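A protein record in our archive is deliberately plain, so that people and models can read it alike. The tokens are whole numbers drawn from a learned vocabulary of local backbone shapes. For reference, a complete record is included directly beneath this paragraph.
>
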Amino acid sequence: MSIHKQFQTQCKSFALVAALCLASLPAHAASKEIIQLQTQVQQLQEQMTAMKQSFDERMGVMKNLVEANTDASNKTTAAINILQATLQKQQGDATGHVDQLSGQIQALNDTLDELKVRLAKVSKQLEDMQSAQQSIAASQQASQAQQQAAAQAPPPDVLYANGLRDYNGGKNDLASQEFSDYVKFYPNTDLAGNAYYYLAEIQFRAGNYQQAVGNYDQVLQNFPSGNKAASAQLKKGFALIEMGQKDDGVQELRHLIQRYPKTNEAVQARDRLRKLGVSTAAKPGAGTQ
């Protein structure tokens, strides 16, 4: 029940009570009391009318406020919906941009990896070129130094004669240097094989059998028809035996006997084989070294 209706009910109740009270009063007092009650009722009605007007005004204000709030709420809801739609669109666009950027970044990474591979290849080529240039430069310097040394070296016959003289004189260090210079500056002459042989002989005397075998091989491989070939093979066999490689040494001496059977070196080879207690005949199928 509203406040206006409650007030009307109370006024009606008050009028009813007033009528009952007047009915119970004497006649001479009823006129005065009636006038007072009528006045009070009139005042109550006026108050009721004023309250109703005030109530109606307030209800109008509240209605306007409710309508205004409802309109504002609707506008806010619409704005929120628009904002959500805008955000969703922006998120969709952002996702597309992110995917596009991811693809571009991946493409850039692939390109960068390819560039790294190419750069590594170019760097390797540059290193190879630098190494080749350095090698060529070193070879040129060595060749120039050798040419300069050869220009300053004694003539081949003089250098060989000096080496042979010092070798026969027991000056092995000086002879070794001179024969080494000879094979260095004049490696393609006929006497180069003899120089290698005397170098091997000096090393054999010093007990450097491995180095001696190397120089004997120089004679046998590069100067097989030279006058020191038989001697080089004989002494190579001796050196191998001294190194503990008896089978190889025996095989070398047998090849010497087979190749140069009537030489003094063959006689020495047979004598050494007899002392070793082995046959002088080469094994069937054995090749020449």
